[in-house]
Amino acid sequence: MDRAQEDREPLKLRERAYDAFTQHLLARDIRPGQFVSQRELVELTSLPLGAIRELIPRLEAEGLIRTVPQRGMQIAHIDLTLIRDAFQFRLCLEKEAVSLFARTASEATLRELRAAHEDILRRAADEITPALVAEAQAVDWGLHDTVIDALGNEIISNAYRVNSIKIRLIREERVRILDSLLVSVMHEHLRILDAFEARDPAAAVAAVEAHIASSRARAIGM
C-alpha cells in the first residue's frame, strides 16, 4: 500500500462511521435525547473505537450530539429551539436556491420532478401504503436536494445536508408524512414546480416559503 492510499484509509473509515451513525439515527435505532457511550456506538456501527473517537468532534460541531458532564454523550434533543433554528436556516438557503432554479433548471429536470410527484398522487388515489409513504418521503427530499445542489456550492450543500438530518429527526419524532399528509405535501411541491415551469423566481420563493411554513407549523403542532 502506497503512502497516498494509507492516508485515504483513515478518511474512508471516518466517513463510514459518520454514514453509519446518521443512518442509524434516521432509522430511529438511536433516538433524540438518548444518552450513548462510545462503546455503544462501536457496537451499533460495527466500526473500531478509534473511528468513533474521531467521529465525535464532528458530530458535536454539527450539533448532532453534545457531551453532558458526568453523563456522557446525548443525541440532539428535539425542542422548540431546534425546530425554530433548523427551519429558519432551511428557509434562508432554499429561498436563494429556488430563485436561481426557476431561472436555470432544464426542462428535462422539471419534467422528471413533476412526473415523480404526479406518479405518487396517482398511486395515492388507489391506496396509500407504507411503501408509498416511504417513496413519497424520498421524492419530497429529492426535490429539495436537487434544488440546493443546483447552486453548485459544496459548502452550502454540505451545510444543508447536516440541517436536513435535523429536519428529518424532527419529522420522524413529531410529524412524518402520514397518510393524511401525503397528498397535501405533494400538492405543495407541485405549486413550487408550477413556479419553476413558469420561470417565475418570485412565485417560486413564495411557494417554498409557504411550504416550509406549513412544515414548521406541523412540527410544532400548530
Automatic annotation (TrEMBL):
- Which species does this protein come from? Alsobacter sp. KACC 23698
Record-given protein name: GntR family transcriptional regulator
Taxonomic lineage? Bacteria, Pseudomonadati, Pseudomonadota, Alphaproteobacteria, Hyphomicrobiales
Q: Does the keyword Ribosomal protein apply?
A: no
Indicate whether Transcription regulation appears among the record's keywords: yes
Pfam families referenced in this protein's UniProt entry, alphabetically: FCD (PF07729), GntR (PF00392)
Instruction: Give GO terms: molecular function aspect only.
Output: DNA binding; DNA-binding transcription factor activity
Q: Which UniProt keywords apply?
A: DNA-binding, Transcription, Transcription regulation
In terms of SMART domains, this protein maps to: FCD (SM00895)
Q: Where is the HTH gntR-type domain?
A: 11-78
Instruction: Report the InterPro entries cross-referenced here.
Output: GntR_C, TF_FadR/GntR_C, Tscrpt_reg_HTH_GntR, WH-like_DNA-bd_sf, WH_DNA-bd_sf
Superkingdom = Bacteria
